[in-house]
Amino acid sequence: MKTVNLFVASLILSLLPTMYQPASAANSSAAVAQTPAKSWLIRLIPPRPHFDQDATPAEQALMEQHFAYWKDLNAKGICEFGGPVLDPKGVYGILVVQAKTEEEAQALGDADPSVKGGVNKIEVAEMHVAFVPMQHS
Fold it and tell me: What's 95's domain CATH number?
């Protein structure tokens, strides 16, 4: 029961920004003309399940560029958070970005040096962020 209540609470919190809009913003022509950014999940799919352990020197160089690319977008507030998922069945990466459209999110992923270099592939899906992660070191 407690888990269900937490789920419902997080769902309500995630929907509040779309449910409430001040009258002044609703009537503003600038608000109508401006499409708000959405959150998008980008799944980074590596070429092999244990890519984190057996990347070639060339792949490692692309992954260093990949890290610098997303770190810069994080500093600009475009990438909310991201990192590797160390799944025993196969490592992969996730990134959550702010973009107005799926095409814009796809373009951010496609511009990743590891994707442009042919090492990784991506999948993009819209995501409703219920809460953001606490600061990690």
Answer: 3.30.70.1060
Place of tokens 């092999």: 48
Domain count, the chain: 1
pTM given for the model: 0.73
Q: Residue 109's CB: how many other CB atoms inside 10 A?
A: 21
Extended beta strands in 3-131, E state: 38-45, 79-85, 92-99, 121-127
Structural domain span for residue 89:
36-127
The phi-psi region of residue 118 (left if phi > 0; otherwise alpha if psi is between -120 and 50; otherwise beta) is: left
Average pLDDT over residues 28-36: 57
Q: Tokens standing for 46?
A: 């590596």
Beta partners for residue 61, in sequence order: none
Q: What is the pLDDT of residue 29?
A: 43
Answer yes or no: is 19 within a domain: no
Chain mean pLDDT for the chain: 82
